[in-house]
């Protein structure tokens, strides 16, 4: 194989399957592999073009007659939390977030399994084993991290210990932002709004790193699963002519 063929991505199209977001629709995806020395640069480029990463695959919807999946990224410097978001931050003051090397643990899998069983029993990931989870975390050729969120580690002056793990985000570090690949949390902590908290924390982390965007993946108008993404304003949504700013 020549150097040129190794560095030139090959794209493939999946067969139709039921759409997970819009009832009665079918979805198809175009995808390519993210491998080799240029995987990081390719991931950056494809993310700008509306692709998402899953392990060593970058994919984008390619559905006939439907453009419902819209890539969304939050404008970090212009973002201001709403009153409700400030309440979420206040409720979670006892949690500590830490960005770590992407290494899977049985503790993470326990939270992941509880999340799937409570929120996504019928989803495509419902049967994932601990080995499947480890592959999801480790099978990456790009700059990938885990952000763990834990309860405070006890009273000051007490024995040093790590607090209980309550939420995790698998996150790619891009040249222009943080891309939240997959997030999960303890389902019994619903009052904490941990999904919202993780996005707010990533916006703060991106600001601290001098990165202009937080990529949230796809927003689908009319899908209750995706409604929450539209609340993080201002944001940009990828349309036929490029990224368009949305303020309300």
From TrEMBL:
Main localization category: cytoplasm
EC numbers: 2.3.2.29
InterPro entries: Acyl_CoA_acyltransferase, Asp_Glu_LeuTrfase, N-end_Aminoacyl_Trfase, N-end_Aminoacyl_Trfase_C, N-end_Aminoacyl_Trfase_N
Source taxon at top rank: Bacteria
Gene Ontology molecular-function annotations: arginyl-tRNA--protein transferase activity; leucyl-tRNA--protein transferase activity
The entry's keywords: Acyltransferase, Cytoplasm, Transferase
Protein's GO biological process: ubiquitin-dependent protein catabolic process via the N-end rule pathway
Domain N-end rule aminoacyl transferase C-terminal: 107-238
Pfam families in the cross-refs: ATE_C, ATE_N
GO cellular component: cytoplasm
Domain (N-end aminoacyl transferase N-terminal): residue spans on this chain: 17-87
Catalytic activity: N-terminal L-aspartyl-[protein] + L-leucyl-tRNA(Leu) = N-terminal L-leucyl-L-aspartyl-[protein] + tRNA(Leu) + H(+); N-terminal L-glutamyl-[protein] + L-leucyl-tRNA(Leu) = N-terminal L-leucyl-L-glutamyl-[protein] + tRNA(Leu) + H(+)
Localization per record: Cytoplasm
Role summary: Functions in the N-end rule pathway of protein degradation where it conjugates Leu from its aminoacyl-tRNA to the N-termini of proteins containing an N-terminal aspartate or glutamate.
Family affiliation: Belongs to the R-transferase family. Bpt subfamily.
Descriptive protein name: Aspartate/glutamate leucyltransferase
Gene label: bpt
């Amino acid at each position: 194989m020549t150097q040129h063929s190794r560095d030139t991505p090959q794209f493939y199209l999946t067969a139709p399957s039921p759409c997970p977001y819009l009832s009665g629709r079918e979805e198809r995806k175009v995808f390519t592999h993210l491998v080799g020395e240029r995987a990081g640069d390719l991931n950056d480029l494809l993310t700008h073009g509306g692709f998402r990463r899953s392990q060593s695959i970058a994919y984008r919807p390619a559905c006939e007659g439907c453009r419902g999946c819209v890539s969304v990224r939050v404008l970090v410097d212009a973002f201001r939390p709403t009153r409700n978001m400030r309440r979420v931050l206040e409720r979670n003051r006892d949690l500590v977030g830490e960005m770590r090397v992407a290494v899977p643990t049985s503790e993470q899998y326990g939270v992941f399994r509880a999340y799937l069983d409570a929120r996504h029993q019928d989803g495509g990931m419902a049967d994932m084993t601990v080995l499947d989870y480890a592959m999801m975390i480790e099978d990456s050729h790009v700059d990938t991290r885990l952000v763990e969120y834990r309860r405070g580690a006890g009273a000051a002056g007490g024995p040093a210990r790590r607090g209980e793990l309550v939420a995790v985000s698998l996150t790619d570090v891009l040249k222009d932002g943080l891309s939240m690949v997959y997030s999960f949390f303890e389902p019994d902590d619903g009052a904490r709004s941990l999904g919202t908290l993780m996005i707010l924390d990533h916006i703060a982390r991106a600001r601290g790193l001098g990165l202009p965007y937080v990529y949230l993946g796809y927003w689908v108008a009319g899908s209750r699963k995706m409604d929450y993404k539209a609340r993080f304003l201002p944001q940009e949504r990828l349309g036929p002519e490029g990224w368009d700013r949305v303020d309300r």
